[in-house]
Amino acid sequence: MRDRLERYFDFAGLKTTWKTEIFAGLTTFVTMAYIIVVNPSILGKAGLPIPAVTAATCISAAFGSILMGVIARYPLALAPGMGLNAYFSYMVVMKMHVPWQTALGAVFLSGVIFLLLTATGLRQAILQSIPHELYSSVAGGIGLFIAFIGFKNAGIVASDPVTMVTLGNLRQPQTFLALLGVLMMAALLAWRVRGAILIGVLTITLAAIPFGLVRWNPAPYSISAVTQTAFRLNIPAALHIGLVEIVFVFLFVDLFDNLGTLVAVTKHAGLLGPNNEIPRLSQILFADATATVAGSLVGTSTVTSYIESAAGVAAGGRTGVTAIVTGLLFLCSLVVAPYVSMVPTAATAPALIVVGSLMLHTLGEIEWKEPLIAFPAFLTLVLIPLTTSIANGLGFGIIAYAALHLAMGKFNRRDWLLYTLSVLFLARFIYVAGT
User: Fold this and answer.
1) Smallest Cα–Cα separation from 290: which of 118, 100, 103?
2) CA nearest 325: which of 3, 24, 15, 4?
3) Residue 164: CB partners within 8 Å, gap ≥ 6?
4) What is the DSSP letter of 208?
5) CA atoms of 295 and 85, how far apart (whole Å)
């Protein structure tokens, strides 16, 4: 049995061992385990029960990572994506007043559409129609979006009737501890400490106890807590025409965020093909889309591949065994669900700020000296946080890109899908302006 598994995962060809793969899986888990605390704190703002979301986070991460390891055989771990969970709570539920059950239905539909695109090959057309620089700016815009949420939750940034925003009261215990948390996490990351964000969250939680910011009231818990969110999604309501853009945003960001992670991790692991193609790409996208569907069923936002998988690759992980080990560790983490609600905002807000800052690395891929690219990318980047909408930022970016290329006489029939998307976004903005 062991020999068959080693042949299936190509241990010999990839020059790896069970010890290396298991250690790599542990490394990936420690690096991304912060999501067990941070995801429930974000989705809890939308009204989802925190113990249930914690269980859903662990279950979806375990399911997605194990599925990725088994069918795609890549050292790529999955979990509910940062950025999309903030969009789910702060934009869809809190700003647009969409019930969380309906929002979960939208996540489900985006996963199903992703599966269909993977099966039909249409995903290739979509990937080729959107300029690479635009989804690089989308990633950066989402980073600014969740970092701003972190600054606001920490009290570092406060609202102001004249200047819109201003510096908060840094003397508040919550704000002071949050600043301390940001510095600690950044320092640990600079020192290449594994699990830097998780260590920071736990340390600030302990430091917050003397200030009365930690509420110790763990309720009796069992795995059945997940039933508070499992299968509570409202798919018929999500099919309403007004929610089409929400489904599109979940789909689009998952598609391109996943692709960027795939390229980064596979390149780092030396797993790219001779022409820089990603082997077994369909299996990878199938695992990602299926994990999103499963996540919506148990009660969490879009599940996607994590760039923290690179930590496991750096530790020697080369096969799906790394992802499987990470998934099993997430499954074991279900025992922490009763205690997550005690983690204060002062501990989770720094994690949002730090993760947001890390998402800005994609901006280096944009040709800022070329106006045809820089201006659409700029609009996308700044309008995502300023309008608190990924769809708005992306819409302005696509319209600007298409309009500038038309004005310069650089229309290409191969870009028909991009121009179609720009017309649809323009029609949407005209419709919204008239309502």
Assistant:
1) 118
2) 24
3) none
4) T
5) 12
- For residue 159, report the phi and psi dihedrals to the nearest 5 degrees: -75, 150
- For residues 393, 396, 398, 401, the Cα torsion angle rounded to the nearest 10 degrees is -130
Stated length of the chain? 435
Tokens of 32: 């991304």
Question: Which residue's structure tokens are 């950044």?
Answer: 186
Q: What is the tens place of the pLDDT at every residue in 85-122?
A: 988 998 889 988 999 999 999 999 999 988 888 888 77
Q: What is the pLDDT of residues 265-305, one digit of tens each?
A: 666 567 766 665 677 878 888 898 999 999 999 999 999 88
Query: Does 360 have pLDDT greater than 70?
Result: yes
pTM: 0.77
Q: Are 271 and 83 in contact (CB under 8 A)?
A: no
Query: Which is more confidently placed, 236 or 242?
Result: 236
Tens-place pLDDT, residues 189-208? 999 887 788 889 889 999 99
Can you tell me the distance from the alpha carbon of 335 to that of 205, in angstroms, rounded to the nearest whole number?
18
Name the residue among 340, 132, 138 with its Cα closest to residue 225: 340
The answer to whether residues 226 and 58 touch, using CB atoms and an 8 Å cutoff, is no
| Three-state secondary-structure class, residue 121 | coil
CA 240/CA 242 separation, integer angstroms:
5
Q: What is the mean pLDDT of the chain?
A: 85
